[in-house]
Amino acid sequence: MLVEFETLPDTSRVWIYQASRSFNSDELVELKEAFNNFISEWTAHGQDLKAGFEIRYNRFIILALDQSHTSASGCSIDASVHFIQHLEKNYNVELLDKMNVSYKQGDFVAYKPLLDFKKMAKQKAVSKNTIVFNNLVTTKGEYLEHWEVPASESWHSRFM
Known about the structure:
single chain, alpha+beta, 3-stranded antiparallel β-sheet, 9 strands
């Protein structure tokens, strides 16, 4: 059951997929339609899942699920991963590679392999004040409060 992202409770589970590049305006329209269709059909053991999504900075896809309504099952999570893999192929973009880091450089969102980010930290090209995206948050509340934070307040701090 597709619902507006904003209406989901802060306890909703989230999955964040960062794209290796920004999506263009045509792709964003297609992505929104694809997510609307996927979530409308997304179920766990035959029960509708109450879920929503948003796309931030034209490159982060945030999928949220109200588990107080119906919890995700292994099969429903697998279905979402297969859907994301389909998007990767369709748009020639990485969405599932967790060994990359996104951070802000002014208004620009940069995307680097973790090894490059570590080197940049060592060279002081990024600092504890650099705004990073903590894609390890697990609830909508954490996403709203602790997703876009200074590196010192995230797992990224170990490299500073």
